[in-house]
Amino acid sequence: MNPAGMPLEFDPYGNAKPDLVTELGKFCSFCEKSLTRSAFHVEHILAKGCLIPGSQTLKYPHLKKRWDNFLLACVNCNSVKGDKDVAVLAPFMPHENNLLHFLEIQTGGMIVMKTGVVGNDRIRAQAFIDLVGLDRIPGHAQFSMKDDRWDERLGAYDLAGRYLAKYTSNPPTADIESIVDLAMAIGFYTIWYQFFIGHDAVINAFINGFTRSDGSIVEPFPSTCNNSFDATNHYNTLPRP
Q1: N or C: which end of the chain has fewer CB within 10 A?
Q2: Residue 187: beta bridge partners?
Q3: Is the distance from CB of 71 to CB of 41 less than 8 angstroms?
Q4: What is the pLDDT of residue 87?
């Protein structure tokens, strides 16, 4: 998380936003939706407002400006995460773990645990969901109409399904370039991966990038870790160490 030549600290920390967008893409690190750069929050992994229990003393003041303590967050994920202490809660985190290996999005935009996720993996995956409230959909006790993550996730789910049908029709009515461009525009990498798993050329373009018809090279999801996928087995997910 500290590219060559980039300062370790940013003062003020908001100045890190352009470099974070370059490094991570214009997506919320937590819910995956696409945003304009101005709409992002520079999210502190170890919260800048977290207090030492039983006191009014900040626990992580030395990390307030540190590049390796930054991710990007939408307003909803930023608000729900707040000053929770990630070091205590120990959730899986998007910059360290392959959440795709443990979670999936189902019809209706619901985020659920994959079958077979048990033990500590299940605890930590659930802790990630709870950290930013990714299960807050209509009917959830803490759902708010100001929270558009579920609604946008639902829209992405519908689009990915329709473009899979176009891609697999005979003849195809959508190509890889149009699919990747659409995925980049709206975000929600997990959804696009789920729909197109088994179509290796599309998944490879998502993970490793591709060359457009005009010759330009595109890296659609720059924060994606190649080591999180088994290229010898149709890009099935792997747990990151």
Answers
A1: C
A2: 33
A3: no
A4: 97
State both tokens at 71: 């991710």
Q: What beta strand segments (E) does 18-174 contain?
A: 41-44, 70-73, 103-106, 110-113
pLDDT exceeds 70 at position 4: no
The whole-angstrom distance between residue 183's C-alpha and the CA centroid of its chain comes to 13
Sign, CA torsion 241/102/95/191: positive
Which amino acid makes up residue 241?
P
Residues paired with residue 44 on neighbouring β-strands, in sequence order: 70
Which one, of 174, 181, 166, 160, lies nearest residue 107 by Cα? 160
Integer CA distances (angstroms), 79 to 84, 199, 202, 237, in order = 10, 37, 34, 30
> Which DSSP symbol is given to 215?
S
Report DSSP state, residue 114. P
pLDDT tens track for 155-211: 999 999 999 999 999 999 999 999 999 999 999 999 999 999 999 999 999 999 999
Average pLDDT over residues 56-81: 96
